Amino acid sequence: MIKSRGSDGRSLVTFVLDPGVEAVRASVCGEWDGWATEAHPMERAAGGGFQLTVELPAGRSYRFRYLLDGERWENDWAADAYVPNGFGGEDSLVDLTALAEEVPAVTGATRATKAAGAKSASKKASAAKATTTAAKSTGKAAAKDPAKAAKKGTKKTP
After folding, report:
1. Rounded alpha-carbon distances, angstroms, from residue 5 to 13, 34, 42
2. Cβ neighbours, 10 Å, residue 59
3. Position 55 in a domain
4. Does residue 18 sit in the same domain as residue 81?
5. Which of 40, 75, 140, 141 might form a disulfide with 92, Cβ 3.0–4.6 angstroms?
6. Tell me, what's the pLDDT at 101?
7. pTM check: above 0.85
8. How many Å apart are CA 121 and CA 5, to the nearest integer?
9. Contact between residue 56 and residue 31 where contact means Cβ atoms under 8 Å apart
10. Is 112 helix (H, G, I), strand (E, B) or coil?
11. Which residue has the higher pLDDT, 6 or 22?
């Protein structure tokens, strides 16, 4: 069984059955699909076994088993754990809680882009504040002495 992080907080689980099960057909059945026997037929792998990738929500564990040739139930030899079921046997367990806790990696390029965006936003905010302050002080001066305000608002360039 191979677990990886998928899109939208989901996990990809590749179920792998060894050729030693000696089956013609195989399906993965689990609590995520109501134990439907036909919902997830497995594909024949090059080495003679079977495999299938299923997308499941991360953050919890799921019971599952393999149905071989429509009549024989088999557990996963590489399951994370086994839990008793109501039929006198055990179900395999795939644990996806760790995948939900992983935080997506932030690359150096992403950090640089975010930092540049933050600096740009900070510069824009400072410029807007300076413009507002200048307008306020010119407005105050205009109320007191309109001629002085006109001179203060216009800067001479050398």
Report:
1. 9, 23, 21
2. 14
3. yes
4. yes
5. 75
6. 59
7. no
8. 33
9. no
10. helix
11. 22
How many DSSP H helices and E strands does the chain contain? 3, 9
pLDDT for residue 47: 86
Among 52, 45, 53, CA closest to 20: 45
Domain count, the chain: 2
What is the spatial distance between Cα 83 and Cα 141, in angstroms, rounded to a whole number? 81
How many C-beta atoms surround the C-beta of residue 109 within 10 A?
Answer: 8
Residues 127 and 60 placed together within one structural domain of the fold: no
Note down the domain range covering 52: 2-101
Tokens describing residue 64: 């599952």
With beta carbons less than 8 A apart as the criterion, state whether 76 and 64 touch: yes
**pLDDT given for residue 142 in this prediction:** 45
Distance (Å, whole) CA 16 – CA 56: 16
Residue 7 has a pLDDT of 64
Give the whole-angstrom CA distance, residue 99 versus residue 117: 30
Residue 15 near residue 76 (C-beta atoms within 8 A): yes
**Residue 106 maps to a domain:** no
